[in-house]
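Morning F.,

Quick status update on the modeling queue. The single chain you submitted on Monday has been processed. Sequence for confirmation:
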Amino acid sequence: MRYILVVCILLYSVSCTNSGRAKKHANVSKDSFFVSSQSFKPFSKRFTDSLEQFFEPGFCGTVLVYKKGYLYKKAFGYRDLNKSSEMQVDDVFQLASVSKTVTATAVMLLVQDGKVKLDDLVVNYLPDFPYPKVSVRQLLSHRSGLANYIYYTDTFWKDTSKYMNNKDFYQFMVKNKPVPYLDPDVSFSYCNTNYAFLAVMIEKVSGMSFPKFVEERIFKPAGMRNSFFKGYQLPRVKSKVLVGRYDRYEYYGTYYLDGVLGDKSLYSNVEDLFGFHLALSEGRLISRDLLKQMSEPSYKYNVFGGSYGLGFRLMNTPAGQWTYHNGWWRGFWTSFWNRFDKQICYVILTNNKHSSHINKLGFANFLLQNDK
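Structure tokens below.
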């Protein structure tokens, strides 16, 4: 009888423990995407009125601002040239080079897993990599000296009605070994080739496709349910995906370079990028030490008033450093700026050139210098 009683008590204890665990993880939805239980306060009208002065008449895009528990998000203008459809705050944009922040985080996840070392040579992971003196860190920090594939792949990709993918890109690079601009680590030289190579390396090391690895290790833990790579569009967001435009021209149809991932071709919206910011800030993706490494200059001198870390540009100001990235690609202009130490971020996404003319640093300083 005593034995039965002890068993019952143990079973009850295990049941309570499991119940507690279930409650602890109640913020994970059935499809395993993180769902935040946080609630946010609105900024004052005085603050938002001043904030909106940064956007010229005719601005079309979406904006999100977060500061210490206060949240602002708004859609402005129209989605298309004909002004037939108003912009919505959950509309999805091509992120252009802001995609690099996600690719770099994917690499840091492999570092955290003990599968990659930043100062290892890339040939340790890709044996046929055609540049044997280039390290992982040099790809991340744009110090590899490699030439930009965007400027010469059209010499072999003749059928522009089809997308080039990362396998095509890699095979071309291995076979032809284009001459680098510089030797490794001589200087900063921003280059999309670095991040296309990183996507290939992530696939090789993880044993998963690059889009699948990012979905499982970044999108889901960060709650980024509306984000996808070109060629992997989600049915649920089909009607929300915008077309980029330049003046009176819209970029419809196939552009062969859109199929190369890692350096660009990530689609997302302001809400998902805010989720990404929170996941990085709260340590739900990588450790704070690894985030700190991403946010430190990879070289001592400044470039265009700032510097570059590992996947993020860095802007030093009298009020501290912003960790950010901007992007442009075929009619999309994007900005993702963070002060992880101050619980501040802003996201501006546009699909037209006119709306790209924003004083981004002035906007950033306004957020720091003004109360809520």
